[in-house]
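Checklist before submission:
- one chain only
- standard amino acids only
- sequence pasted in full

Submission:
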Amino acid sequence: MKFLTVRELREQTSRIWKDLPEQKEMVITRNGHPVAVLSSVTDQDLEESLEAYRRVRAQMAVTALQKESIQSGTDGIGMKEIDAEIGKVRKKRSEC
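Returned file contents:
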């Protein structure tokens, strides 16, 4: 996978667009850190590509929540405790 700086993207845009179908993906970096991914798509696979990307983002969000739960110690609470917490929140909402 090819890495490009923001500056290269700005200065060599036409070459990058030309190379993208062959490269498939390119990572754009700013100050040495990745900030975006350019991905080659066609009219035929645009919707499928977007759907796959969204699925991956959703899975990443779930994984982050699971890690946060483990770190905070809430991964071991039972349904009674969960229901009690939901009840507290609902009660607060109804009081507003």
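Reviewer check: Residues 45-96 form one domain.
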